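Duplicate of #3305? Posting structure anyway:
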């Protein structure tokens, strides 16, 4: 994918065809990073990149559901109450609206995932939840 194709897309800029979400990965030693891929009034797509030990901490979206597709690595899906479920590349986590969730890279290698989020009439709302 060319550098100019790695910018966030919307209905006006979307190129027709197949896009590789791995091209949007951006790792940082300081913190987990998120890169917008596509957004419109109904759907938001982003790629999260986590070095070992980093996390997208627990939070919830009162109006938004997720599908989180693990692109590479392994880690933990963080649930309400502090419980975790092991996740790895190739798996998909479904998060209904209102559910507390997060992702932690508990492995020794990089972890990235593609997050598809419903937007809907209420817009995108993220409430941080302390574990």
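Output from current build:
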């Amino acid at each position: 994918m060319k550098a100019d194709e790695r910018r966030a897309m919307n209905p006006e800029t979307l190129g027709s065809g197949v896009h590789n979400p791995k091209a949007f990965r951006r790792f940082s030693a300081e913190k987990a990073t998120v890169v917008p891929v596509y957004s419109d009034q109904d759907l938001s797509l982003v790629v999260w990149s986590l070095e070992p030990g980093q996390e997208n901490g627990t939070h919830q979206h009162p109006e938004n559901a997720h599908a989180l597709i693990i692109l590479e690595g392994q880690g933990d899906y963080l649930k309400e109450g502090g419980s975790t479920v092991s996740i790895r590349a190739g798996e998909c986590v479904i998060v209904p609206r209102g559910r507390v969730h997060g992702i932690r890279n508990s492995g020794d290698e990089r972890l990235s995932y593609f997050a598809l989020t419903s937007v809907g009439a209420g817009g995108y709302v993220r409430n941080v939840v302390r574990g």
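Confirmed duplicate; merging threads. Residues 98 and 104 are 19 Å apart (CA to CA). The beta strands are 33-39, 43-50, 55-60, 66-72, 74-79, 84-88, 92-95, 101-104, 111-118, 127-128.
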